[in-house]
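Supplementary Methods S3. Complex input for the flavin-adenine dinucleotide-bound model.
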Amino acid sequence: MILVLVEVSPAGEAVETSREAVTFARDLAAAGGGVPIDAVLVGTPGDALVGVLASYGVRRVHALTGPAYESFCGAAWAAGLLEVRERAGSVVVMAAGTPRGNEVLAHVAARTSLPMAANVVSFEGLSPFTVTRQVVGGAALEEMRLAQRPAIFTVAGHAVAAAPAEAPGAGELVVETPTVADADLVARVVSTEEPEPDLSGALTSARVVVGAGRGAGSAEGFDDLLELADLLDASLGVSRVVTSLGWRPHHEQVGQTGSRISPDLYIPCGISGAIQHWAGCSSAKTILAINTDPDAPMVTKATHAVIGDLHEIIPAVNAEIRRRRG
Ligand SMILES: Cc1cc2nc3c(=O)[nH]c(=O)nc-3n(C[C@H](O)[C@H](O)[C@H](O)COP(=O)(O)OP(=O)(O)OC[C@H]3O[C@@H](n4cnc5c(N)ncnc54)[C@H](O)[C@@H]3O)c2cc1C
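Predicted complex, serialized as structure tokens:
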């Protein structure tokens, strides 16, 4: 049996990445001679959700319930998964390669002392179980063999397209109340704060983005960059260093763990162009880099580059734009 952790949205729906993971599981099940697929989720699902999972070929939906499951807790979710697994005897435990999926399965791997492959994009063989997975933020692929059972892995987002099965599963609902130790509850979500809606929407759809990195030097070092963004009717996008230092808010971050942008023009100022940043801006049609280092990766990849101090260049550009506009 293949056991898939399914994440449920606040609206009570199976999130797309989890539906992708179930779709991936079906290929695995077929290669294994038609082994059944069971889903594990947290909370009591509505009929519609159970129906959707059945349409994806799920035989049983195990719903983890009880006080330990009122908010996210990686160790408690892992305890529940393993309790279901021990009873049903699955050969594979998998999830979507989301922050929660990777965290829960890392707990499962640690508790069973088994290896785990994160962010898998395909499997090549069943014995030994061989997978290809993304590493370095998706910039490289590596092959990995999981020799022991159960095979534990997460599926990279969009490795497959989510699609219902030709033959639906029975979709039998089984309510579970796993035993969760107090020690498993020490790290759990106690409150959540929704980001203000649409804050990064403007960034992801902007035609022009002014980027800023550590080269800005300080929170105050953004004044000229913000003025340039205003003059160009552009959005501001920043590197992770900038958000980590608290110079700018997280919703402005571009990159692997921020927004992915595809503007007509991106102007990264004082950004080195680390692979994780590049992952979020490589779709820009034109890149004009401003940097003191002619060998910075962003400079070598840019369409055009100006080598120099952004604190001299940006005020001069702003002054010239203002002068030309009268
Ligand atoms: C798992 C993981 C996820 C990550 N996700 C992201 C992500 O989503 N987005 C992201 O951006 N990073 C991400 N990072 C961090 C990333 O690896 C880099 O550390 C980060 O992008 C570097 O930011 P930076 O370019 O601003 O700083 P630096 O690498 O320090 O570069 C600063 C640049 O500014 C230039 N400079 C300095 N002074 C001036 C000046 N006065 N004028 C002009 N140029 C100047 C320097 O020459 C240098 O090129 C991630 C890292 C990890 C491990």
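The mean pLDDT is 93. The pocket of flavin-adenine dinucleotide is lined by residues 213-215, 239-242, 253-258, 270-272, 274, 276-277, 280, 290-293, 296, 309-311 (CB under 6 Å).
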